[in-house]
Amino acid sequence: MPGRRCFGIKIIVLSVLAFTTLLFIYPFPDTKLLFKQASRLLEGPSASDLCACPAQCVAETQGHQWFSERFNRSVYPLLTKENYTLPKDAFNWWMRLQSSRSGANFSHVMKEVFSMFPGESLYRDAGPDRCRSCAVVGNSGNLKGSYYGRMIDSNDLVIRMNQGPTQGFEDDVGARTTHHLMYPESAKNLDPETSLVLIPFKILDLQWLLSAFTTGHIKQTYRRVLPTIQADRAKVQIYSPVFMRYAYENWLDKHGRYPSTGFFSLMFALHICDEVSVFGYGADKRGNWDHYWEHNAGAGQYRSVHGGDHEYNITRYLATTNKIKMYVGT
Ligand SMILES: *[C@@H]1O[C@H](CO)[C@@H](O)[C@H](O)[C@H]1NC(C)=O
Ligand SMILES: *[C@@H]1O[C@H](CO)[C@@H](O)[C@H](O)[C@H]1NC(C)=O
Ligand SMILES: *[C@@H]1O[C@H](CO)[C@@H](O)[C@H](O)[C@H]1NC(C)=O
Ligand SMILES: *[C@@H]1O[C@H](CO)[C@@H](O)[C@H](O)[C@H]1NC(C)=O
Questions:
Q1: Residue 315 CA: which ligand is closest?
Q2: What is the reported pTM?
Q3: Of the options 3.90.1480.20, 3.30.559.10, 3.40.640.10, 1.10.3720.10, the CATH number for the domain spanning 65-327
């Protein structure tokens, strides 16, 4: 009998030793990840392993009823060369967003677009081995003096929008940009590392894209636009009108005319990232809606066209339910 007890104790001591040694040679950032990795070792990857992030994955719907009623993983944010045909109802919705006298045929224009730009199916690699962190950087004046730059740049992807500059504002907004979302009237030149993600509101916007990389003949939409643009042609992506409608209907409950670029950018991140941090959204602490690089008296307009309060509400709610992290700045 004593021999047996001795053996039992030995096993326990050895297990504890092995466990602590393991912890030392392979330190885990937190116990939740340890648990996740351990169960993966024991059971192999399971379908519920949506990502490899230590805390939780954005796409996790279990225990998130409000989120799961809105989030639909199978709506893809980009148009691809393989599939750019829009269902009739989505096409009709999209065609009413901004009037344009272009008269061009959508599928003909798209065919041309994807003869010039790759149109690949990207970011579909979600799974137990991926933890993609993303920073979505809005243009709010609340970034001024925030010193968020290093935190923003430490993400795998850094998503910016419209006129948002980095040069001269690196301490507060960071220096890297992997994706820049824009439409013709908000376009700016980009670094070669950055993907231009066009949000098209009309067929003319897609024609402008073709023109901006070639002849430069389109200089005007409902206002003057950049005739040409500097950006890497191989990194151009086209935001999907079907996804635009999904953002408007599923997420905004049809508030406003259509979502803002800020909201489209957030939705983009929710669908291609496993962890999302949001910077530079909403007013500053004094209630001003300035941009971080200028005094902008017209920013109130954004709120009426886009149901800005409602967008901000939804964004806040995503943060309170720990779906995203929100940094409110100064
Ligand atoms: C999610 O989107 C897919 C593809 O667009 C659609 O077929 C499906 O019905 C949607 N699911 C829900 C629950 O709305
Ligand atoms: C193409 O995309 C549309 C809209 O996103 C979708 O309804 C349709 O099922 C897709 N078709 C194929 C073959 O994937
Ligand atoms: C665009 O052209 C195709 C044929 O190439 C045609 O089937 C389609 O109906 C046209 N679309 C519109 C909106 O006119
Ligand atoms: C924002 O959310 C609060 C609480 O959920 C709600 O009472 C309010 O009506 C919402 N505002 C808008 C504009 O949706």
A1: 4
A2: 0.86
A3: 3.90.1480.20
